Amino acid sequence: MNEATLVEAFRGIPRRDSVRIGIQVGKLRKVCMGDQALEAFFPEALDILLRLFHAPAGAFWFRPFNATTLFPISRVGFEHLSLSNSCLSACEQMVRGAWQSLAPQVRPIDRSFVSLIGPIRDGSTSIGALQLVADSGGDKDQQPKLVYARAMAGVLSLIQPAIHRRMQVGETSIREATDRLAQLADQLTGLQQSMRHAIDQTLGQLRGASFGSLEANQQFTRVIHELLETHGLRVVCPECGAAAILRCSKNPRTRDGVFVFDHSVAGRRTFHGGYTTLPVLQVVSKPPRRGKSLA
Asked: Is the distance from CB of 32 to CB of 161 less than 8 angstroms?
């Protein structure tokens, strides 16, 4: 598919903002023709693809040589989707069930989103998949689904050779390259676990602290929230075990305020706690926004 045809394929995609499609297609072609390593190629290409497909989330998935399923290598935006845990889990299973298809798949997730799954192949062998979550275009409207499939096919014609070329650098084989990608995923997981452990340790050392005034306590809770938000984390409420935001609230009985855990319980905003000093703080992954379950 040439560049002009690819530009036209994107014009029918539902979007709520103005995107200069020709410029983004040109950027994608430039990235694909570049010489950056795979580790840099994936996030650069994914950023452009999210704009082109007006997609809030996306990922590249690959199968290590000795594995039977795929693992995400570069993944963006899923934590911000308004989908339930069951929907997100089903979304992952769609990729693992469709990555060996010969053509792009467009699968419904709920009334708001569809999952676009583009198989990444090396000749006759499936080695991975590009996944994007995009606007459904309406329950009864099939046209956007056809547009998505056509645009995904065009995109794959660009990125598959780009990925294959980078996997063949020097004496590197496809098998070696996919194993290296799996090792990268393991390293990233290890780094995330180490980061959470370091945050847990530091917060644990602050147990029993208070900072001398309501303003200072509130400033401290804001700093904690900004740190955890950056890494997609929350603190655990010691009363109910739910993921929460630590805050310091005014209290008529204590000049410096009290530490409380702000979260949603049974769909209602709830504050647990009332501690005059910092309680035990442990971190947990930020839960996805509540959404509808798959039918």
From this structure: yes
The Cβ-side half-sphere exposure at 101, using a 13 Å CA radius, reads 19
**pTM of full prediction above 0.90:** no
* Residue 227, CB-side half-sphere exposure with 13 Å CA sphere: 17
pLDDT per position as a tens digit, 193-206: 888 888 888 888 89
Short-list 154, 156, 112, CA closest to 291: 112
pLDDT digits (tens, 9 = 90+) for 212-224: 899 999 999 999 9
Distance CA 277, CA 256 (A): 9
Q: List C-alpha distances in Å: 15 to 56, 84, 94, 131, 177.
A: 11, 23, 24, 18, 36
Could you give the angle at the alpha carbon of 36 between the alpha carbons of 32 and 40, nearest 5°? Answer: 95
Which residues share a beta bridge with 130?
A: 60, 118
